[in-house]
Amino acid sequence: MSIFQLVVSRPVAVWMIAIAAAVFGFVSYQRLPLDLMPDLAYPSITVRTEAEGYAPEEVEGQVSRPVEEALATTEGLVELESRSRAGLSDVVLEFAWGSDMDRAAQDVRERLQTTFLPDDVGRPLILRYDPTLDPILRISLATDPQGSSLPDDDDLALVALRELAERQLKRELEAMDGVAAVQVRGGLEREVLVQARQDWLAARGVTMQQLITTLGAENVNIPGGAIRDGDQEFMVRTLNEVRSVDEIEQLEVRRPDGTGVPVSELAVVTESHRDREVESRLGGQPAVTLEVYKTADANIVRVARDIKARLGTDRPPPPPGLDPAVAAAMAGPPALVDQLP
């Protein structure tokens, strides 16, 4: 009996097989993972070396060129280029597709061990580009010029935005399924600046080292082990971390005769912010950006949709004066992003 006769003589069985194939195909399609980039390894290696205080010309002559000469004869190398900037050297090695990158990285590592660089230059780092490690979503926070409840000072407003992103939004997003990590960039980080006055130190017989030692010793939380009481266990800790400028000013520095001198009589303590290394903007205004990274097996479209839903309706509204917006959705091609709710 031929296959055609079998199909005609048993129509019910054929329909059941067709329906089962359609159902299994539909279920498999729903579970099919979707990602922005294919799972592949780019045949490139970057050797990054930090040379703090070096000008671009010095970086090129004393760092980039020796590294280039040592790696120029690496097996399978197709192209070699270097980028020398102030305090940083990047030497990029391009290999042929299909090359064993693990073996190439080991070869580069062995060659770097025999390359001599200035003593004050950092240890070369071997970096490999992986597109799956890029953020899938960027979320920006900016102040609303009208009706803002944040401080009028731009620096204080950026400090408040940074704290909101780190203490609230970052923790919320990292608790979601499919989110591996969230990094906060931009804004200003709060910092307490202790400016010691040399004349005040000399007048009270205190050295700079004594002031530094006191500030380091008094601003710590130390674990003290545990105490067992039957089936219960209690953690013991020494809590002595300062939380305000007033607490720092009230710390006492002990002189050799045993008397204490408050920090307020030795230095000027002010609340400031760290130097800005990354500047983020939204609509021309200074902003704070959160970069969202997904887990390896997560569906990139579903994670992006869940995050947008959480920011839109499934989470409490932000404090007055804040305008959260998804600044750059990188969940897929533009047509795919436009289809997301």
Quickly describe the structure.
The chain is an alpha+beta fold and 341 residues long. The protein folds into 3 domains: 44-129, Alpha-Beta Plaits (2-Layer Sandwich), CATH 3.30.70.1430; 132-189 and 277-339, 2-Layer Sandwich (Alpha-Beta Plaits), CATH 3.30.70; 191-273, Multidrug efflux transporter AcrB TolC docking domain, DN and DC subdomains (2-Layer Sandwich). It contains 10 helices and 15 strands.
Report on this structure.
With 341 residues, the protein is α+β, with helices and mostly antiparallel strands. The protein folds into three domains: 44-129, Alpha-Beta Plaits (2-Layer Sandwich), CATH 3.30.70; 132-189 and 277-339, Alpha-Beta Plaits (2-Layer Sandwich), CATH 3.30.70.1320; 191-273, Multidrug efflux transporter AcrB TolC docking domain, DN and DC subdomains (2-Layer Sandwich), CATH 3.30.2090. The chain has helices at residues 3-9, 11-30, 56-71, 101-113, 154-174, 198-203, 208-218, 245-250, 300-312, 334-339; strands spanning 44-50, 77-85, 88-95, 125-127, 137-143, 179-186, 190-196, 220-229, 232-240, 252-254, 260-262, 267-273, 280-282, 285-294, 322-329. Strands 5, 6, 13, 14 and 15 form a five-stranded antiparallel sheet that branches. A four-stranded antiparallel sheet has the order 2-3-1-4, with helices on one face. It has a two-stranded antiparallel ribbon with strand order 7-12. The radius of gyration is 30 Å and the shape is extended.
Q: Could you name the key traits of this structure?
A:
341 residues, Alpha-Beta Plaits, 3 domains, five-stranded antiparallel β-sheet, four-stranded antiparallel β-sheet, 10 helices, 35% helix
